[in-house]
Design brief:
Layout: E1 3-5, E2 8-10, E3 14-16, E4 38-40, E5 57-60, E6 63-66, H1 75-82, E7 93-98, H2 103-113, E8 121-125, H3 136-139, H4 142-155, E9 160-163, H5 171-181, E10 185-188, E11 192-195, E12 197-198, E13 203-204, E14 210-214, H6 219-230, E15 237-239, H7 246-255, E16 259-262, H8 265-268, H9 272-286
Helix pairs in contact: 2-4, 4-5, 5-6, 7-9
Length: 303
């Protein structure tokens, strides 16, 4: 079940996605963290952020909308209080999701994190659709994205993963921009910009009006985008978007992902990540797959 991803050796390819697993340690009484390949923390900014006012989560027919607004404790509090307890689970790699309103803020967060122990990689959040500045503003403009990746890569002492926005015309092109600017890997997809309206009150259900759509509803689109990116770049891919079952994970890996992230499923089942890791291993055994890494990019043609 071991996979090599952007220089990291993971015990298996199942990773808890950013924003759905807290800072990791909150789940240690529910999930055996040693059974996960890694966790990606909530987005960490230079200063604490309160996020948006409620309501900021809305259930949908096949998933959910969120407009949390990147609420987090800030990089100093994260390094001092949230990160150290994760040392109790050394086999579970810690990937820190990094966010800023400006390029300098992204650089500042990474510069501070470089001094901390226990971090294996950075995931550059260039795609959050729920904030007024930063986030998707970088991920949907190739020139801004190129500058962001180049500047952060210069200071990052750990592998740099760029989280891509699906709210673009060509996600393959945006992945190439990241690769050429020095990214070690890409992760995709983040949520799709969407909204929900209460017909009775005639008001938006989210305080932010719009939010990010995630869950099984987006899986077919996310799968197609992973496939496109795998045909566009040589750097490794973290695939995500509506993964609930072991078969879902296998589909993303066949499309070209080296590893997968599980997000919205953790809201319905807090142990979804652990269950999926066990299910993926069982699937490989039942299908005589000796190494899960051998499945990456293994999609066969229809001919």
């Amino acid at each position: 079940m071991r996979v090599s991803f952007a220089g990291l050796e993971l015990t298996n390819p199942v990773i808890a996605a950013s924003g759905t697993f807290g800072y990791g340690i909150e789940f240690e009484e529910i999930v055996s963290l040693e059974k996960l390949g890694a966790i990606v923390t909530k987005g960490i900014s230079l200063e604490p952020m309160a996020g948006h006012a409620p309501p900021r989560i809305v259930q949908t027919a096949a998933g959910m909308l969120n407009a949390i607004g990147l609420q987090n404790v800030g990089v100093e509090d994260f390094v001092e209080r949230k990160l150290p307890p994760m040392s109790r689970h050394p086999s579970c790699k810690v990937i820190v999701n990094v966010f800023g309103h400006t390029v300098n803020e992204y650089v500042g967060v990474i510069d501070r994190l470089n001094d901390a122990e226990g971090i294996s990689a950075y995931e550059l959040n260039a795609s959050c659709p729920n904030v007024q500045a930063g986030g998707m503003a970088f991920g949907t403009d190739p020139y801004s994205l190129e500058e962001l990746v180049e500047r952060t890569k210069r200071v990052a002492i750990q592998p740099l993963i760029v989280k891509l926005s699906p709210n673009v015309t060509s996600i393959g092109y945006m992945a190439r921009v990241c690769a050429e600017a020095g990214a070690d890997a890409v992760s995709l997809v983040n949520t799709f910009l969407a909204m929900s309206i209460d017909a009775e009150t005639r008001r938006p259900r989210l305080s932010n009006v719009t939010g990010g759509l995630s869950g099984p509803a987006i899986k077919p689109i996310a799968l197609r985008m992973v496939y496109e990116v795998a045909r566009s770049v040589q750097i490794p891919i973290l695939g995500m978007g509506g993964i609930v079952t072991a078969e879902d994970a296998v589909e993303f890996i066949l499309a070209g992902a080296t590893a997968v992230q599980v997000g919205t499923a953790s809201y319905a089942d807090p142990r979804a990540t652990e269950r999926l890791a066990a299910g993926l291993e069982s699937w490989c055994k039942s299908h005589d797959v000796e190494k899960v890494a051998s499945l990456t990019g293994g999609l066969k043609s229809r001919e």
